[in-house]
TrEMBL record:
<dbReference type="InterPro" id="IPR051319">
    <property type="entry name" value="Oligoribo/pAp-PDE_c-di-AMP_PDE"/>
</dbReference>
<protein>
    <submittedName>
        <fullName>Bifunctional oligoribonuclease/PAP phosphatase NrnA</fullName>
    </submittedName>
</protein>
<dbReference type="GO" id="GO:0003676">
    <property type="term" value="F:nucleic acid binding"/>
</dbReference>
<dbReference type="Pfam" id="PF02272">
    <property type="entry name" value="DHHA1"/>
</dbReference>
<feature type="domain" description="DHHA1">
    <location>
        <begin position="239"/>
        <end position="331"/>
    </location>
</feature>
<dbReference type="Pfam" id="PF01368">
    <property type="entry name" value="DHH"/>
</dbReference>
<dbReference type="InterPro" id="IPR001667">
    <property type="entry name" value="DDH_dom"/>
</dbReference>
<feature type="domain" description="DDH">
    <location>
        <begin position="19"/>
        <end position="170"/>
    </location>
</feature>
<dbReference type="InterPro" id="IPR003156">
    <property type="entry name" value="DHHA1_dom"/>
</dbReference>
<dbReference type="InterPro" id="IPR038763">
    <property type="entry name" value="DHH_sf"/>
</dbReference>
Amino acid sequence: MFTPQNLDEIRSLLCKENKVVIVTHYNPDGDAIGSSLGLKHILRNYGVEADVVVPNDFPKFLKWMPEAKKITIADYKRKKAREILQSADVLFILDFNSPQRSGDLMAPWITNSNSIKILIDHHQMPDAFDYVYSDTTQPATCQMIYNFADALGAKEHIDLQAAQCLYCGIMTDTGGFRFRSTSAQTHRVVADLIEKGAEPSMIASSTWDTNTLSRFKLLGLILGRMELAADGQVAILTLTRDELRTYGFEKGDTEGFVNYGLSIQGVKMAAFFMEDLYEDFIKISFRSKDDLDVNQFSRKHFNGGGHINAAGGKYYKTLESTVADFQRIIEDEPSLQASDSD
C-alpha cells in the first residue's frame, strides 16, 4: 500500500481543480475494466470526476458494467483519447506495470504526459512512477482498488456501481475464486462488496453465460487438435487467422481457452498460440500450476510477462515456427525439467 505520506499527497491531488484520467492495458480484461470503472465510481462519490481511456476495444461480455459505454477507446477515437491524456493532471495506471503494455498507440502518450502518475497493479517488475502501489500477492487489481479506497478513507464511497465492477474484476482474475492467489482477505472483500449490493449470480451470468456459436465452434476446433508435449506435461493449443475469420470470431471468443489445456491430468503448463487477426504476430497465453513460473518463461523467450501462473506474450514468426520454437525451448527449459520430480 502507499505510505501515509503518499496517501496524504494523493488526497491533495484528488480535487475538482485537477483533471483525473484512468488508463489500463491493451486488450482489457475483466480486472482491467472492473478496476478502471470501479475507481471512476469511487472517485465520483469522493467528489472527483474521472475519464477512462483504454487502448482498444474489450469483449462484449464486459459491457454490462455501469458506464462501460462511456469509456473512450483509443483505437476508435484517437484524437479524443490523445487530448484527454494530454490534459490529465493526475493519471491512474491500473492493471499494468509499464507504458509499453498499453500498446504502440497509447504508450508514447502515457510516457510523455506531464501528469502525476499513480500506479496500482499486481504484476511483477513495475516501472517507476510518481506513486506506486504494487503487490504481486494480490489476486486482482480490483482488490487493490478496494484496499486503496479503504486506506484513503473512502470505503463508504464504494456504492452499488463500484461494487459490481470490483466484484467482476476479482471474480474473473481469480478464475471464479479458484486460483491459489485467492485468499481469506479476498473473500472478506467480496463479502463486503456483496453487502454493498453486488449480485454474484447476476455478475457471473452477465460475464460468463454469454457463449456464441462462433465461440463453441472455435472451442471444438481447438480441443480436437490439442497436443501434449514434454512427456505430457505441456498442452499446446493453436488457432489460425483464417479459422478465426471462418467461424466469425468476435473479441472475447477465445477467453479462457488456454485453461482447458491446463485442466488435463498431468499437465503442468498450457500454451495457446493464436495468429493476430490483423497484424503479423502470434498472440500467446500461458497458464501453469504450482511453482512453474510462466511469467519468467514468457519474459525470457516470448516478449511477454504477467504472473507466476498466468502470462502472455508475442512472437513475430509464423504460427508453425512459433510452435516449433516453443517445443524446442520447453525440452531444455530448467523450470520444466525441475518439475519432473514433482
